[in-house]
Amino acid sequence: MGAKRPLIAVLTGAGISTDSGIPDYRGPKGLWQRDPKAQELVTIGPYLADPEVRRRSWLMRRDVGALGAEPNAGHLALVALERSGLPVRVLTQNVDGLHQRSGLPERKVLELHGTAQRVQCVRCRVRGPMARALERVAAGEPDPVCEECGGVLKPCTVMFGEALDPVVLDQAEAIAKACDLFVAVGTLLQVHPVAALPQLALEAGARLVIVNGEPTPYDPVAHEVIREPISLALPALVRRIIAGEFAGDSGEG
Predict the structure, then answer these.
(1) What is the β-pairing status of strands 207-211 and 181-185?
(2) Would you name the residues annotated as active-site residues?
(3) Which keywords describe this protein according to UniProt (predicted)?
C-alpha cells in the first residue's frame, strides 16, 4: 500500500439510490428494460431535435421524483465513513444530489455526470433550479423554455452523446491513481470513461472492492465482490474499513 497517507475512493452508481425510490437504468428492473425507447429521453441529439422527446423527458423527470427522494442507509454509511476521520472522496455517476443531502461535504463529492438539481439553457447558458422548471410543467408547460431567451432547457447533467467535463474527469482520475482502496458501489462499470477508473486504481496498487447486485467486468480482478443488497452491504463494509481491515492507519480528510 506504500507509505503515503491512505485514501479511500468510492465510486457510486444508480444502484446506491434505488432504495431511495430512484430507478436505475441498466439493471434487470431498470428503466431501459421497462422501456427501451426511454434512452432517447436522455440522449442529447433527439432531445434537442424533437419537442416530443423533450415533453416525454420532462414527464419522466416529474414521475421519477428525484427531487423529493431521501438518502438511504447506503448514503448514510458513507457519511459515517467520512466522519470517522478517514480520508474519503466520493465519485458519483448519480445526478440526484443524495450524497450531499445525506451530509457529505460538497468538496468531498465529485459529480461525474453533473446534477439534476438544476437546469441550463443550451443557448444562453443561464442556470436555474430544476424545481422551478418542474413547477412550470405541472402548471401546463409541457416543454418549458428558458425564461431569459426562449432557448431549450436541459438538466445540468451529462446526457448520452455529451462529453464529461474534462476538469471533473481529470480530478476523478487523479483520485483513482492516488487512492489505496477503491470501492465501486451500485455500478455495472460499463460506461467509459468512468469505467476506466477502477483500472487506474488497480494499476497504482489500490485494492478494489465491488458492491453490486449484477456482475461487472472487474469482478475477476477485484479483491472482493459483495452481492448483498447495498443498503445492507455498504454499512457492514464501512464498519470493516473503519476498523482498519482495508485502509490501514487513518489520516485527516
Answers:
(1) parallel
(2) 113
(3) Metal-binding, NAD, Transferase, Zinc
Residues 229 and 16 sit within 8 Å (Cβ to Cβ): no
Domain that holds residue 37: 25-64+116-157
Where do the DSSP E strands lie in 32-108?
88-92
Report whether 191 contacts 24 (CB < 8 A): no
Q: 141-185, pLDDT tens digit by residue?
A: 999 999 999 999 999 999 999 999 999 999 999 999 999 999 999
Q: How far apart are CA 19 and CA 219, in angstroms?
A: 23
Name the binding residues for Zn(2+): 121, 124, 146, 149
The whole-number pLDDT of residue 66 equals 62
The CATH number of the domain where 224 resides is what? 3.40.50.1220
Sign, Cα dihedral of 132, 135, 139, 144: positive
Distance in angstroms (rounded) separating the CA atoms of residues 193 and 161 = 13
Tell whether 129 and 236 lie within a shared domain: no
Residues 59, 2 share a domain: no
Q: Does residue 135 share a domain with residue 51? A: yes
pTM flag (> 0.70): yes
- State the DSSP code for 16: G
Single out the residue of 79, 72, 67, 71 nearest to residue 109, CA to CA.
79
Residue 81 and residue 187 in one domain:
yes
With contact defined as beta carbons under 8 Å apart, do 163 and 170 qualify? Answer: no
